[in-house]
Amino acid sequence: MSGYLKLDYIGKSFSRGGKVSEVLRDIRLTIDEGEFVSIIGHSGCGKSTLLNLVAGLTPVSSGAVLLENREVNAPGPDRAVVFQNHSLLPWLSVYDNVALAVTKVFRGRKSKAERHAWIMENLDLVQMAHAADKRPGEISGGMKQRVGIARALAMEPKILLLDEPFGALDALTRAHLQDQMMEIHARLGNTMIMITHDVDEAVLLSDRIVMMTNGPAATIGEVLTVPLPRPRERLALASDRTYLRCREAVLKFLYERHRFVEAAA
Amino acid sequence: MTLPSIKGDAIAAFPAERQKATVVTLPPAVPRRFDIIALATRLAQSIVPPLVVLLVLLAVWQVAFSGPGSSLPPPSEIWNESSDLILDPFFVNGTQDIGLGWRVIVSLERVAIGFGLAAVAGVLLGALVGQSVWMMRGLDPIFQVLRTVPPLAWLPISLAAFMDSRPSAIFVIFITAIWPVIINTAAGVRNIPEDYRNVARVLRLNQVEFFFKIMVPAAAPYIFSGLRIGVGLSWLAIVAAEMLTGGVGIGFFIWDAWNSSRLTDIIVALVYIGLVGFLLDRLVGFVGVIVTRGPAAS
């Protein structure tokens, strides 16, 4: 199966007060079903904008996003988003946050008991079933992000979009969640796109790493295939030659050829 | 203390020496006694100061207005003349001779209807204004002008429109209480984080689902501060409206007492109005605290 998700010459410009600024230009990318793709680049290069375009949260200015050969231009649960700051609704319990998504997506398709089982299964998947009745304010940042992942997975999306999902977490929690993410990916085989600015995270998790040039009018500079077999072991990889070579390639791209320059504006 | 040396340039991690953990026994928890002294102290701390101040004020009042030519009655006279109103709020001696408790209930009923309508309409209109830029541009200036119109200025218009005093009084309550509800709700809706909106968009929540599942809970703290201001204003308006429209409410009672020169009754009624207004404010505040506990906790 090839060409599950196609980004076809996508461009995005914002206009404010008569001034048009081009953020993304000519983005071409084809992603296969079950692939894990990371998008990496310096801050401000339009990574998050690209993710929002795929999610449909912002409309494209030119080009098209094709999912299974059909154009998508509005948000929907088939492209679930894990937001950077978890975005759980603070007035709902952990269970109800996931239930909100499950009820909306599966109403009419699953019975009440089946929906309950499905909510608990997804909370189990991220090991949060024990805190089902807690409010988001009562659990840690890493736990919130896990619930956010459970909520997104519970929509049974065709594509899971992760917007710097572990960016706000401490290093240990981040490593733990990365391992969990790899497990989930191995188990469910979801297609995933992750925005990140962490080189190790990108190499560890991805099948391919998409490297963005700097803006304005950023585009894809290079795509690196990570030929590491799965399952991947964090510790074993630390001295693996292929791992180090991939890591070096990304670092070279980011710090030699496309060094981050502070925008003069 | 000797440490094993590192052989060659290999980096080795040494396991920490095993030590038997010492078990510390904690004293058994003392069961909490019902501490009557501490409770009494706390109660006294909050009740005694206002009581003392009140007594001092009453004493000053008594002294100041005890002269033969004083225009207002001193507290002792109020007690002598109107103790029936103070001691029994719920007596019934005839259609127009009833306790102040009954009158307050009649007024509260009007407030409940007028304020209830204002709360529902205010939240809906506020949501509309907060949600849509065009609605805000169109309606906000009108709201800003109308909200400055004093409650009683609406009365002649509403009397002309409804041709009956009862709905007119309720309308005056409604139109007085609605503005803070609209304005606060709109502010709350405008301040809903973009993330919550994105969650709703990914889930494809429709307008009704968005209103009940995201908008109302997210804006609840704002809505309740609007409702709290609104209930205070409607209690202000009911007394004035009843003075003019008649009936059996507490407002009309004051007007009636003034016409029959029962100054002591008026003063008792003022105390009733103040206490009820205070309780209304606290009630709405209390409901707000319970309802918005979720968002505040995060």
TrEMBL record, chain A:
Q: Does the keyword Transport apply?
A: yes
Q: Does the keyword Membrane apply?
A: yes
Q: Tell me the GO molecular function terms.
A: ATP binding
Q: Could you tell me where this protein is found in the cell?
A: Cell membrane
Topology in membrane: Peripheral membrane protein
Instruction: Tell me where in this chain the ABC transporter domain is found.
Output: 5-239
Q: Identify the CDD domains for this entry.
A: ABC_NrtD_SsuB_transporters
Q: List all membrane-crossing ranges.
A: none
Keywords from UniProt, A to Z, are: ATP-binding, Cell membrane, Membrane, Nucleotide-binding, Transport
Cited InterPro entries: AAA+_ATPase, ABC_transporter-like_ATP-bd, ABC_transporter-like_CS, ABC_transporter_ATP-bind, NO3_transporter_ATP-bd-like, P-loop_NTPase
* PANTHER family associated with the record: NITRATE ABC TRANSPORTER ATP-BINDING PROTEIN, TAURINE IMPORT ATP-BINDING PROTEIN-RELATED
Family, per the entry? Answer: Belongs to the ABC transporter superfamily.
State the name under which the record lists this protein. Nitrate transport ATP-binding subunits C and D
Organism lineage string: Bacteria, Pseudomonadati, Pseudomonadota, Alphaproteobacteria, Hyphomicrobiales
Automatic annotation (TrEMBL), chain B:
**Keyword Nucleotide-binding among record annotations:** no
Q: Where in the cell is it found?
A: Cell inner membrane; Cell membrane
Q: Which CDD domains match?
A: TM_PBP2
Where does the protein principally reside? membrane
| Alphabetized InterPro entries for the sequence | MetI-like, MetI-like_sf, NtrB
Membrane topology per the record?
Answer: Multi-pass membrane protein
Membrane-crossing ranges are: 43-64, 111-130, 142-163, 169-189, 210-229, 235-255, 267-291
List the PROSITE patterns hit by this protein, alphabetically: ABC_TM1 (PS50928)
Database matches in Pfam families: BPD_transp_1
Query: Mind giving the lineage of the organism this protein is from?
Result: Bacteria, Pseudomonadati, Pseudomonadota, Alphaproteobacteria, Hyphomicrobiales
Name of the protein this chain belongs to: Nitrate ABC transporter, permease protein
Where is each ABC transmembrane type-1 domain found?
104-284
- Report the family membership: Belongs to the binding-protein-dependent transport system permease family.
Q: Which UniProt keywords apply?
A: Cell inner membrane, Cell membrane, Ion transport, Membrane, Transmembrane, Transmembrane helix, Transport
